[in-house]
Specification:
Blueprint lengths: L1 E4 L2 E6 L4 E15 L4 E7 L4 E5 L2 E5 L3 H15 L5 E6 L4 H6 L7 E6 L2 H10 L12 E5 L2 H7 L5 E7 L13 H10 E10 L3 H18 L4 E8 L7 E8 L9 H5 L10 H7 L4 H7 L2
Parallel strand pairs: 7-8, 7-10, 8-9, 10-11
Antiparallel strand pairs: 1-2, 2-3, 3-4, 4-5, 5-6, 11-13, 12-13
């Protein structure tokens, strides 16, 4: 639920008894796409704001936290990622971070709602600066079916950059989808799933992701928390899973000597994110 009153956009998390607000200068865009309501605002202090079905998706000011943590930990954990698929990620920020890695030979963005990408190109051009990279490929359609149709053993890394597990994204948090992802992965392949707030969802959504990923045959699963001011509680997470290889080891020297600029991610942030808060240890060790 969201509202725009007296120059403030407010997203209300009714079931959690909390809310988050940003002061806005003006509404820049509004449309009903075939899949969802898309709004874009200019805020007073966080740059542009994208809202889908009343839920904050990203702002210019703090999206780097999410996009860097959805990509670089997994890319530096994989031994040699060559083909990467982003399911969702219509704002193109995750794709941009993936393509910072020179060893990536092919990257796909598989997004159901093309309008999200087109409006990102207009209002968040900095996130779309790699869209013309010759390694970048775009498919606008059903990501679940795209993964199901992928050749077995053809993908090194699948990043599920989804909205909350409702509406168009609900099927991306399902056991059958994880099984299809596992079949599509090459040896040593990794899945990364956007996994909501550790404080609100550790014993529900995140625990369910761990359970389903294990059932799908992904033996190694770990959740990495990170800050995200515009999302519920200001604390978010991604969950990594691998078929064969433990995830607590990564190419630390490569991460330290990365040939590109990051604003949040570095080798120490990576190591720190692997340290689980005690309440999460307790939940996942049950």
């Amino acid at each position: 639920m969201s509202a725009l009153n007296d120059g403030w956009f407010t997203e209300v998390f009714q079931d959690q008894g909390t809310a988050f607000s940003l002061q806005v200068k003006q509404k820049l865009h509004e449309e009903q796409t075939p899949y969802q309501k898309l709004e874009i605002y200019e805020t007073a202090t966080f740059g542009n704001l994208m809202v889908l079905d009343g839920c904050v998706m990203l702002t210019s000011r703090d999206n780097f936290l999410y996009h860097e943590m959805m990509t670089h930990p997994a890319l530096f954990t994989h031994r040699a990622p060559r083909k990467v698929v982003v399911v969702g990620g219509g704002d193109c920020g995750t794709l941009r971070e993936v393509l910072k890695h020179p060893d990536v030979e092919e990257a796909w963005q598989v997004e159901i709602d093309e309008r999200v990408t087109r409006m990102s190109e207009k209002y968040f051009p900095e996130l779309c600066e790699s869209n013309e990279d010759p390694r970048a490929n775009f498919f606008f359609g059903d990501g679940i079916q795209w993964i199901r149709d992928a050749d077995p053993g053809s993908i090194d890394l699948i990043i599920i950059d989804s909205t909350d597990p409702v509406g168009p994204a609900e099927g991306l948090f399902a056991l059958d989808f994880y099984r299809d992802c596992m079949l599509a992965l090459r040896e040593g392949g990794i899945i990364v799933q956007q996994s909501e707030s550790p404080l609100l969802h550790a014993d529900t959504i995140i625990k369910g992701i761990h359970t389903d990923m294990h059932k799908a045959g992904l033996d190694h699963v770990v959740t990495l928390p990170f800050p995200q001011p515009v999302y519920p509680t200001g604390w978010w997470s991604c969950t990594m899973a691998s078929k064969e290889n433990p995830l607590h080891y990564f190419r630390e020297e490569d991460a330290a000597e990365r040939p590109f600029v990051t604003r949040y991610y570095n080798e120490d942030i990576h190591k720190g994110a692997l340290a689980q808060p005690q309440f999460m240890r307790d939940i996942f060790e049950d």
